[in-house]
Amino acid sequence: MSKTIPFKEMANEWKKNTEYKKEYKNLEAEFEIARELIHARARAHLTQMEVAKRMGTTQSAVARLESGTKSISLRSLEKYAEATGSHLHVRLTV
Questions:
Q1: ∠ at Cα 8 (2, 22), nearest 5°?
Q2: Tell me: the pLDDT tens digits for 1-54?
Q3: CA 38 → CA 14, 43, 54, 66, distances in Å?
Q4: CA 80, CA 24: separation in Å to the nearest integer?
């Protein structure tokens, strides 16, 4: 009989692994962008489909942008910002 391990418990174990922590840190910027996209859409009270129509793309393309698993071009970020009534700001920090 197999035992089901809660995700939270597994995640806590992964966080103890130095290789996992390193890779997670490497993805931090992508996750931050994904969070910002989702927040912008929520602030605008829009669905992914509505954003897609405004951008001239598909709902699945918007879902991929919001997933944080794909590199996003500056042009796509600009179109997304315009579609959600947001302003795009890029910052480099130390």
A1: 110
A2: 678 889 888 888 888 999 988 888 878 888 999 999 999 999 999 999 999 999
A3: 26, 9, 15, 6
A4: 25
Q: Please give the Cα distance from 38 to 20 (Å, whole number).
A: 25
Q: Which residues have CB under 8 Å from 72's CB, separation 6+?
A: 33, 65
Please give the domain boundaries of the chain with CATH numbers for all domains. Answer: 7-83 (1.10.260.40)
Would you report the helix, strand and coil content of the chain in percent, each value rounded to 5? Answer: 65, 0, 35
- The owner of tokens 């912008």 is 40
The type of residue at 61 is: A
| Rounded Cα distance, 2 and 31, in Å | 33
H or E segment to which residue 20 belongs:
helix 18-26
Tell me the pTM: 0.76
Both structure tokens of 32: 């931050």
How many Å apart are CA 72 and CA 69, to the nearest integer? 9
